[in-house]
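Quick log. Single chain, no ligands specified.
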Amino acid sequence: MKSILIFAFVSSFGILALLAEKITHQEQRDGLASNDPSSDTYRGALRKKGVSRRISGFWHKVNSSPVCFEAKNNQFGRFYVPSSGKLAAIKLVHRYGYVSCDTQIIFYWSYWGCGDNPWNGLKDLVDVVITNTANHTLLPATQFITMDRTKSKIPGHNSLSQELVLSVISQPHWVTAGQELRLWYGEDLVNHSEGNNGGRVCCDVYVDYALS
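-> predicted structure:
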């Protein structure tokens, strides 16, 4: 009986190991497909997220250490574009931290905005902005900005999305190698209603360039 139990345990462990390996391989295939510009998965993701089809489809990571921003007191994050070209999109990938438009309410903490705030549709909006050093807004596209000059409705995303893609609609922005760009919490950028804000988010930043 003891031998039978040992055999059953070993067999079960082997089946679980094979299942875990299969899941890992599937995740790897899905990950490769989602980053392969020739794949339907990749193109579908771009269309779902509102990304221009004129972009190259290759993300370039710009930071070696996390890019961090806070929700008030002009605490933006800096990063530098790796090469000259027509900037078509920026992807932000959350690493750690939270920001809030009201630190007293637990549901208002999030990665990119005001969390689950039900007022005026805020829970569906993001409030992060990419600017140049003159604090002129480059992204998100003005067509997506719905409130207070900074809050935007980004297709396929909200303030708790692990990844946030900000794309141009039609006209890319020309940038030069080494140019500084800034990542802001929107209310901090325009100095609007930031007194009860708080928190800090750190992320990885990727850029993509237009083909023409």
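The chain is about 20% helix and 30% strand.
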